[in-house]
Design goal:
Length: 726
């Protein structure tokens, strides 16, 4: 009875907080200013005079802003009288500031030309503090990758591209940002995946489904490093990855991308499990068009592969749609959806080290059927130059069914979400972000049973420039977590940040924040057999918590040099890790104390004003289980990436090298041999007008390595990619 009253009291308190927020929101929303001035115009490349799409246009000190369409045109109405500084920014170009004076109701026309920079350094991000801001104003480390990175590296899949990001490595399909996640057999993730700012995490497993969004639809990716729970909640315990998709605006345009490739023969005769030529192919088609006040984006994709290992085959389809309707100059409404489905073979563990590309004969024929559906609706209202209201409703459905020799299990997880966020520009140097978020998970699963899960949250963040070159950030988020079995938890997560601009080229930053993550249903309730491993439940799992600290700086002394460095320390309590016993029975348990300390550096240079650009990233980590005084499992000490790109005429030649030191500690098969990862990839791309032809060789030297036990990563493979735009 006491627990029931406490829960009831918390729900009442939260609802009062929610009502107070809505009252504030509607007070501001009612203050809609009449239409005043308009600015419009075009933005072009200063060298070739080509129009630039997706240029960010911001009125500094307000919430007003827009982006250019596919023809480089922009239109921003309803600007109240006054003087403003308009900023034009785009990745790979120098920013331009324009002073304007709005004192009449007619429109002002601008023709803006942006000058390309040799090094592509990011100007704007939108995820770190849930609003548009310069990356140099973020107190936490942010990594940014764009569609240009996809084209330059000619990568096909999102997770493959993320492997090139500094401080990021994968263990199986599980992403680690600065060693945060380790490996948990697909049960839970400490990194949150967002698509256009909306969390996309299944309610049963709580892991990331990388195939939900094809690479061809991505405009850019933003990687938040460190605890993001102060704004994003439970799954952002170790960071967040926000995927921003292509816009649904502009004249009719169709893009086609087709890739076909093959795998080389393995270097050891014992590993050659078939005489067939093992191959893969991928097709993506998308179309954008403007329909009056509406913009429409549609896409379709198909992927098929024999796999490079036995039972590694798959056939997958995906489709997406985005429809944006401009209600008036102050409001727009967007609906977006993604679908992905098909089947794939299952090859969790190899037959033996001598037969590393084969599965156990009893597992031959195991496969998985699965599909995912994501639907979002967004409403964006600019009530005045100092107030913006954003509302989104979301739905995510994840279905899978395992057809295994020792297990036939199915699961359907449905997640419903609602978020309301208000951005208030109190003054030119003072902004406030507040919001409320609610999610409901309904799971019907043969793996974890039938369960419901409810999360309520409220967040508030204040950013203020205290001195001329110094900005502080103070944030707080409250989460209330409830599972139908009786588990309840509530967390307050604060965040503090400081940014100091020494001069135009040198910036210092520091931040500290508290993160938390509630156990996923798979970690808490899983009771099954999976490829010989027995999973048992632990309903007594506590939520894991962390304090994340960071201090860093960035230096941009010239257009030919960019350096960013940071030291970090993450302290963990009740860290949730898988723990097998001598019979290979796995249960998730809480580790009382753990810590990861390290340093991360990023260097971008253009040697001697040449046509060569070089990117170097290095991360050192010391991941420690403080209870047992051993290295945390599945974390390397060193991550090193270097890539070079050479432009000559219509050709570009690229090469990159990735090194990840040997993982010192694993859980299930600790006696197995382990080696560092040393992978070299190369590419050549030819571009003429709207057509591009790329040639890639990945893992040139056939480095044989595992990320998780007894699963060999891809051997050498070749592929050709043709892209065309009409």
């Amino acid at each position: 009875m006491i627990m029931t009253r406490t829960c009831y009291s918390k729900n009442i308190s939260y609802k009062i907080l929610q009502i107070m927020l809505f009252v504030v929101i509607f007070i501001y929303a009612g203050k809609v200013l009449p239409q005043t001035g308009i600015i419009k115009g075009t933005v072009n490349d200063s060298k070739n005079n080509e129009p630039l799409p997706a240029v960010n246009i911001s009125l500094l000190g307000t919430v007003l802003g827009t982006t250019t369409d596919k023809n480089g045109n922009f239109y921003l109405p309803n600007i109240p009288f006054g003087e403003y500084n308009v900023r034009f920014t785009m990745m790979g170009y120098k920013k331009v500031d324009k002073q304007i004076n709005i004192n009449r109701t007619d429109s002002q026309q601008f023709d803006i030309r942006l000058q390309p920079t040799i090094l592509e350094t990011p100007e704007l991000v939108i995820t770190a503090n849930k609003r548009r801001q310069s990356i140099q104003d973020s107190p936490t480390s942010i990594g940014v990758m764009t569609s240009l990175d996809f084209r330059e590296k000619n990568e096909i899949y999102l997770d493959n591209l993320l492997e090139h990001a500094s401080g990021v490595n994968f263990v199986g399909s599980q992403i680690n940002i600065r060693g945060s996640s380790g490996f948990s057999y697909g049960a839970g993730s400490r990194v949150l995946l967002l698509i256009d700012g909306v969390p996309v995490m299944p309610g049963d497993s709580g892991d990331i489904k990388w195939d939900i969004i094809p690479a061809s639809q991505i405009e850019r990716i933003e990687i938040i490093k460190g605890a993001g729970s102060a704004l994003y909640g439970t799954s952002a315990f170790g960071g967040a990855v926000n995927v921003i998709t292509k816009s649904a605006e502009g004249p009719p345009k169709t893009n086609v991308r087709y890739s076909v490739g093959m795998y080389a023969k393995p270097g050891y005769k014992e590993w050659q499990w078939t005489d067939r030529t093992l191959h893969f192919e991928n097709l993506d088609v998308d179309h954008t068009r403007q329909l009056g006040k509406s913009g429409l984006f549609m896409s379709f994709g198909r992927r098929q592969s024999t796999g490079y290992s036995q039972s590694g085959h798959y056939l997958r389809f995906n489709g997406s749609m985005k429809w944006k309707y401009q209600i008036n100059g102050q409001q727009n409404f967007t609906i977006s959806s993604n679908y992905e489905g098909g089947y794939r073979g299952s090859a969790l563990l190899w037959r033996s080290q001598r037969n590393a590309l084969e599965v156990d004969p009893v597992a031959l024929g195991d496969y998985v059927d699965s599909n995912k559906l994501n639907v979002n609706a967004f409403h964006n209202l600019i009530a005045s130059k100092s107030f913006r209201l954003k509302t989104r409703v979301s739905y995510f459905r994840n279905y899978w069914k395992n057809f295994f020799h020792d297990n036939i299990t199915a699961s359907t997880a449905q997640r419903y979400g609602l978020e309301v966020q208000a951005d208030v520009q109190i003054s030119q140097n003072h902004s406030l972000t507040m919001g409320t978020e609610e999610t409901l998970d309904h799971v019907a699963s043969g793996l974890v049973g039938d369960h419901d899960q409810h999360v309520l949250a409220f967040f508030l963040q204040n950013e203020q420039q205290l001195f001329k070159n110094m900005t502080t950030t103070i944030g707080l988020r409250y989460d209330y977590h409830n599972v139908d079995t009786g588990f309840k938890d509530s967390q307050w997560n604060p965040k503090f940040g400081l940014v100091y601009h020494l001069n135009q080229g040198v910036t210092f930053r520091a931040s500290t924040g508290r993160g938390f993550r509630a156990a996923s249903m798979s970690e808490r309730f899983a009771d099954s057999i999976y490829s010989g491993l027995r999973l048992v439940p632990n309903e007594n799992l506590k939520s894991e918590t962390a304090w994340s600290h960071e201090a860093g700086f960035s230096i941009v002394p010239s257009p030919l040099f960019y350096l960013d460095a940071a030291v970090f320390r993450n302290d963990y309590w009740d860290l949730i890790e898988p723990e097998p016993d001598e019979t290979q029975t796995v249960q998730f348990i809480n580790i009382t104390r753990a810590r990861i300390t390290g340093v991360e550096t990023i260097l971008k240079i253009v040697p001697f004003y040449s046509n060569v650009t070089v990117d170097i990233g290095y991360t050192y980590m010391d991941p420690q289980d403080l209870d047992k005084n051993i290295t945390l499992a599945y974390r390397p000490n060193h991550i090193f990436n270097i890539s070079g790109l050479y432009h000559i005429g219509f050709m570009q030649i690229g090469c990159n090298y990735r090194y990840i030191s040997k993982i010192e500690n694993v859980k299930v098969y600790p006696a197995d041999d382990r080696v560092p990862q040393k992978v070299v990839n190369a590419s050549v791309q030819l571009t003429r007008g709207n057509y591009s032809l790329g040639f890639n060789v990945n893992n040139i030297f056939n480095d044989y390595y595992t990320q998780m036990e007894r699963t060999l990563e891809p051997i050498r493979h070749y592929y050709v990619t043709l892209t065309a735009s009409y």
